[in-house]
Amino acid sequence: PLLCDGRLTCFLFPLLLLLRAPLLFSFGERTCPNSCRCEGKTIHCDSSGFLEVPENISVGCQGLSLRYNELHTLLPYQFAHLGQLLWIYLDHNQISVVDSRAFQGVRRLKELILSSNRIASLHNSTFHGVPNLRSLDLSYNKLEILQPGQFHGLRKLQNLHLRSNGLSNIPIRAFLECRSLEFLDLGYNRIKALTRTTFLGLQRLMELHLEHNQFSRINFFLFPRLANLRSLYLQWNRIRVVNQGLPWTWYTLQKLDLSGNEIQTLDPAVFHCLPNLQVLNLESNKLSNVSQEAVTAWISLTTISLAGNIWDCGVGICPLVAWLRNFRGSKDTTMICSSPKHLQGEKIMEVTRNHGICEENDYFMTETPSPMPELISDATAEPTFASTSCSPTTPPTSTFGPLPPFRLRPIPHPTYPGHMSKDTRNTAIRTRPTLISPPVMEHMALHK
Predict the structure, then answer these.
(1) Does the structure show a pLDDT above 80 at 207?
(2) Does residue 340 have a cis peptide bond before it, meaning omega lies within 30 degrees of 0?
(3) CATH 3.80.10.10 corresponds to the domain 35-114
(4) Tag placement on the chain: N or C end, fewer CB within 10 Å?
(5) How far is residue 167's CA from residue 186's CA, in Å, rounded to a whole number?
(6) How many angstroms separate the CA atoms of 207 and 230, rounded?
């Protein structure tokens, strides 16, 4: 201290500040673990060979990525000191043990990625401490069962990924509290059957993946509670039969993928109850023909895929051929005859025209193409049930005119190579059919 103007003045104070500055700055800095990259409030510790979660992570961290490491176990309260976390990426590790309290203390967490690990089981309370989750990814693990109440309390969850595990069944009311769920992926598992309560509570679900499982038959009456579903993926199962069960009208479904199954016959009742279906994939099944009743029910399709079936190019193929000639949407141009033997490998549309298998008629639209319609409102539409018929209250307006009857002709043996007619599909005017709105009806509850 020095005297200045008769007062004790701390001239050394600025010097003391300079001496203490490095210490002050070190306290103010956010710590960044070795081998990690820190950007603001996010920390990336990917591909760094970590055997456990680093300890010196800033308490203000909001995003933590530990992808592609060697983590094996998640301990109790593993992230409790990081209460500000909004997302954690733990995929592509060797995690096989997850303590039921591993995620306690991170209630703000919105996204949790645990895919591509070795998790074989999870306690039913594992996710009870993260009620604000929006996205949960458990795909590519070894889960064989889901515990009752596994997703209890996840009322804000919007996306749930369970693809590529070993699940063989789904517990009753497993998703009951996932009332905000919009996307559910159960593909690539071993599920053989569903019940009417499997999807109870999923009123907002828009996309459901059930491909690459072990279903042998599908009854659409399993899905009436999915009143907002837009897309259903059932490809590459072992499905031989698809039926409707108790008739009801599914107004919201717009995309249905049944490719890679063993379907031999199409039930017209199924399609009569899907008045707004736009995309239908039936590739790689065992269809030999499609009935007049079935093609008449395809009133709103804009895209259809039919390749890879065992088409019989006899007179039974004529209803499908007549429908395809009038269809102005996206369609296959590679449909091949599997029988009779002398027509094997020939293109269906070409051979039926050149060899006069079906009546050669010109089909015209009976109405002026309408502009792009408005899609169904996002508001949940109640499924409509009927005692004997699932036809809409207001008859749908088809994009096709009435198909004239065709005259059956015997199949002549080819004497020369058929000449492919010019495909005018690209020059045709494409329009999308008017979607049918559900009628106003009183609420009808469905009980088992």
Answers:
(1) yes
(2) yes
(3) yes
(4) C
(5) 9
(6) 6
* pLDDT tens-digit series, residues 382-433: 455 444 456 544 444 444 444 444 444 443 444 333 333 334 444 333 444 5
Distance CA 395, CA 9 (A): 96
Number of Cβ within 10 Å of residue 124's Cβ equals: 15
Angle (CA) 268 272 277, round 5°: 110
Band (pLDDT 50/70/90 cuts) for residue 20 is very low
- DSSP bridge partners of 303: 279, 330
Domain boundaries, the chain: 35-114, 273-441
CB 76 within 8 A of CB 99: yes
Contacts of 427 (CB under 8 A, 6+ apart): none
Please, what is the Cα angle at 127 between 122 and 132, to 5 degrees? 155
Q: Tokens in use for 224?
A: 């009436």
- The C-alpha atoms of residue 405 and residue 176 are separated, in whole angstroms, by 50
Per-residue confidence (pLDDT) for residue 390, from 0 to 100 = 63
Measured in degrees and rounded to the nearest 5, phi and psi for residue 39 equal -130, 105
Q: Give 211: exposed, middle or buried? Use CB within 10 Å, 0-12, 13-18, 19+.
A: buried
